[in-house]
Each structure stands twice: as structure tokens, then as C-alpha cells.
Amino acid sequence: NAGVTQTPKFRVLKTGQSMTLLCAQDMNHEYMYWYRQDPGMGLRLIHYSVGEGTTAKGEVPDGYNVSRLKKQNFLLGLESAAPSQTSVYFCASSYGSGGNQPQHFGDGTRLSIL
Amino acid sequence: AQSVSQHNHHVILSEAASLELGCNYSYGGTVNLFWYVQYPGQHLQLLLKYFSGDPLVKGIKGFEAEFIKSKFSFNLRKPSVQWSDTAEYFCAVNAPGSARQLTFGSGTQLTVLP
Fold first, then answer.
1. Bridge-partner residues for A25, per DSSP?
2. What is the pLDDT of residues B46-95, one digit of tens each?
3. Which long-range contacts (CB under 8 A, 24 or more apart) does A48-53 make?
4. Which of B49, B51, B106 sits opposite A42 (nearest CB)?
5. Is A114 helix (H, G, I), strand (E, B) or coil?
6. Distances B1 to A60, A68, B37, B94 between C-alpha atoms, Å
7. B101 and A108 in contact by Cβ < 8 A?
8. Considering Cα of A3, then B103, then B88, then B20, what sign does the dihedral take?
9. Which residues, listed in sequence order, are joined to residue B20 by a DSSP beta bridge?
10. Phi/psi at A53 (5° precision)
């Protein structure tokens, strides 16, 4: 089982460049999430989606946009990358109903902004 | 808004020592509680979860956690740690109906010396 797959795994950008991180899940999960992980700060929620075509802001949404055009995919975009966005980005997914279920995480994308 | 505190940032133990990692949360209502583990270079994996019922929860790899509602705590324990338990441990909470959004603590790095 692939679970949650993130691409790319590593990327280096220059300030001002744009890029899109892709998250794909094969578990038919309704909910999907994007987090960033920074040293000493745990994981912080950037954006999330409760279903195809819906997105919502999390704790730290500024500078990011997301789209959920297909149920299995959740894209995270950086329109104009800044050094403060250097981080490890994790995607996660979970069932949306039928009882409480934990989130399943991808392997992460390490992003450096120079 | 809910918050999670993990007061131990780095814990160093010798093999066979007992482990207890603290987790306190602030939220006035019912919560779901989780412990995740992140081994070096890997994604987060679920150790255990508490939704309701018996406040003593057993997870994988010999870990357990106790939910004490009056103390807003969900401490992680293991009677005898192994070198392979070296990892970062994250406590997380969400509130039912909150789109499963997780609020993470800042993490505790556990180093087990052989």
C-alpha cells in the first residue's frame, strides 16, 4: 500500500520563485492536510480540506495556496517563495466520518529557500 | 483555541530505563488525544490514541499512555526503553467536529544510549 505519497522529496528554490508540492493518497480519505515542521515548534497546520473542491485555512496559511480538484490529490503552492518558508512539509489524510480516525502522514518534502 | 505543551524537549536515557514523557493540553471540551513518533528521516507514525473509555491506552511497541482529565494530561510511558526507541515524540489533540485538525506539541527528542 502506497498510503500518502509526497513529491518532490527535496527541493531548493531561490527567493521569489514559485512551486507546487503534490500530495496523493490512495486510501479514499475525505480529509487532507498540509503541515510544516520547524525545529522546536512541532507541526503547524497550513491548510486543510474536508472534501473534493473544498479548502480551509489552518494556523499558518500566509504565503501558501492549496487546491483539491480531485479527492486523492491535495496540492500546496508557494507563489513567491521566501526564506521563512524553508521547512519540512508534511501531508496527511484521514477518514472524514464513521468515527474518529487518526491521520496518516507522508514522508515529507524538505524545502530550502535561498 | 486548543494548545499542547510538551515540557521535555530532549530526554536521554540508557537502555532498560523507564520512560515518561509529559503532555498537557488546554481545551475546555472533549478531546481526542494522540501520540505520534518520528524516527530519524521518516514520517510520523501513530503510537496510540485515546477517544473515550479506559483512560489507560496501550499502543504499539510496548508504549502506553494515561489520560487524566482533571490534570489535562496524556503522558506517554514505557517500562523499559530500547536503543531503537530513539526518535522524536509528538503529542497531539483534536476536538470532535473540528475537521480532525490536529494541534501538535513541540515534540520531545528521546535519545536512548546503548
1. A4
2. 999 998 899 999 999 999 999 999 999 999 999 999 999 999 999 999 87
3. A48/B99, A48/B101, A49/A74, A50/A96, A50/B99, A51/A96
4. B106
5. coil
6. 14, 26, 24, 10
7. no
8. negative
9. B77
10. 85, 0
With CB atoms and an 8 Å threshold, state whether B102 touches A90.
Answer: no
Nearest-by-Cβ selection for A31 from B9, B90, B99? B99
Nearest to B44 among A48, A90, A94 (CB): A90
Chain B residue nearest residue A58, CA to CA: B101
Alpha-carbon distance of B75 to B47, in angstroms, equals 12
| Cis peptide leading into residue A8 (ω within 30°) | yes
Place of cell 478531546: B31
**Tens-place pLDDT, residues A30-73:** 999 999 999 888 899 999 999 999 999 998 999 999 999 999 99
